[in-house]
Backbone:
């Protein structure tokens, strides 16, 4: 079993920055990929970014590419999402997840999720 706890969300003005953190724990935590997804009210959960646990290779949705940076600290079992140049359309609950199998871009590929952290960007 894996437990994920996100933190770092909040209210920020457009153009501002936030850094999200995801703390992972579990007896046999050894993911292949971890990802960040987001879900706005009335919308499906959508992919934002993912990182390969071994070599740090990163993957981004077009909507966040160039503004968001995903990183990880293997020793601490932490994943981060640095979000810069935030826009009102980035407003959503952000979730981190552990991929089990399948495409890193699909939420159905992830077996474990945190409770989410709210990000609100005001215009």
Residues:
């Amino acid at each position: 079993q894996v437990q994920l706890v996100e933190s770092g969300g909040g209210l920020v003005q457009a153009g501002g920055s936030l850094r999200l953190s995801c703390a992972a724990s579990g007896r046999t935590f050894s993911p292949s990929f971890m990802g960040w997804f987001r879900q706005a009210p009335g919308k499906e959960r959508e992919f934002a970014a993912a990182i390969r646990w071994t070599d740090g290779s990163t993957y981004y949705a077009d909507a966040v590419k160039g503004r968001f940076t995903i990183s990880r600290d293997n020793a601490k079992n932490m994943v981060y999402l640095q979000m810069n140049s935030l826009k009102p359309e980035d407003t959503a609950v952000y979730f981190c997840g552990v991929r089990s199998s399948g495409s890193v871009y699909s939420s159905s590929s992830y077996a474990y999720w945190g409770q989410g952290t709210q990000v609100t960007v005001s215009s």
Observations:
- The chain has a mean pLDDT of 96.
- The first strand starts at residue 3 and ends at 7.
